[in-house]
Design a protein that fits this description.
The chain has helices at 13-33, 40-51; strands at residues 2-3, 6-8, 52-53, 57-62, 65-71, 80-84, 88-95, 114-121, 132-136, 139-145. By secondary structure, it is of the alpha+beta class. It has a domain at 2-10 and 53-145: Immunoglobulin-like. The chain is flat, with a radius of gyration of 21 Å. The termini are far apart.
Length: 160
């Protein structure tokens, strides 16, 4: 089982904005390639599918701990990045596909190079400093404890 480094962040907004900009640029290129004719929304969906894959995830809560399981088949642990905030987790991974001529002629290949990207909000705030991530057999497992709730406390006032 390989450990995956995790980075604590204050916000994931900048990462989402960067991804949005990449998709927008590609969608615009697709739109311009048809001289502005066609389906701009379809171009956006095509660009998104071309640039980013969304891994299947499961978010489970048990005994004060959230566990996120994400399917990242064909990815090396060194190519996975996990960023975590008290509210969200972002999973990013790069995939490569190389063909070698020494192993026969490829007649069909549906494997592609690309990027996995998944942003997932937690239903409750978490203690990001205690998060852990491990990767084994194509599955990423992230565990993070739920943050202790801040509770109101009555303060006695002493007369001076």
């Amino acid at each position: 089982m390989a450990n995956v480094p995790m980075t604590q962040k204050d916000s994931i907004g900048d990462q989402l904005e960067q991804l949005h900009e990449r998709i927008a640029r590609r969608a615009y290129d697709l739109f311009r390639s048809r001289d502005g004719w066609g389906d701009a929304f379809g171009d956006w969906l095509s660009a998104e599918a071309e640039l980013v894959s969304k891994p299947a995830v499961e978010l489970r809560e048990q005994d004060g701990i959230f566990t996120v399981a994400a399917a990242l088949p064909g990815v090396d642990a060194k190519d996975i990045a996990v960023d975590i905030t008290p509210q969200d987790v972002v999973i990013k991974a790069a995939t490569e596909q190389k063909h070698t001529e020494t192993k026969g002629q490829v007649h069909r290949c549906e494997f592609t190079a690309g990027q996995y990207f998944r942003s997932l909000p937690f239903p409750k705030p978490v203690d990001a400093t205690k998060a852990k991530a491990e990767y084994q057999n194509g599955m990423l497992s992230i565990t993070v404890p739920i943050a202790p709730e801040a509770r109101a406390k009555r303060v006695d006032i002493k007369a001076a």
